[in-house]
Amino acid sequence: MSDEKDEASAPAYAECVLCREPTEYPVTHKGITLCPVCEWQEAQRTACSG
């Protein structure tokens, strides 16, 4: 039962819009939310698009 209380008190994280994994952003975050992996990959794509 203590696990249920821990989950209820933990902040809810938004899903990544690309892979549906949890992100570092809360559900209330506005805009596109990406997990750290997808965020890094997107940064690589835009850095090289010149």
Produce the secondary structure layout.
Blueprint: H1 2-9, E1 13-15, E2 22-26, H2 36-47
Antiparallel strand pairs: 1-2
Instruction: Indicate the overall shape.
Output: elongated
Tell me the series of helices and strands, N- to C-terminal.
HEEH
Q: The biggest beta sheet, please?
A: 2 strands, antiparallel
Helix amount, in percent? Answer: 40-55%
> How far apart, in Å, are the first and last alpha carbons?
53 Å
Q: Mean pLDDT, as a whole number?
A: 83
Strand tally = 2
Taking strands numbered 1, 2, ... along the chain, how are they ordered across the largest sheet? 1-2
Kindly name the structural category.
alpha+beta
Count of helices?
Answer: 2
The Cα radius of gyration reads 14 Å
DSSP strand (E) fraction?
Answer: 15-25%
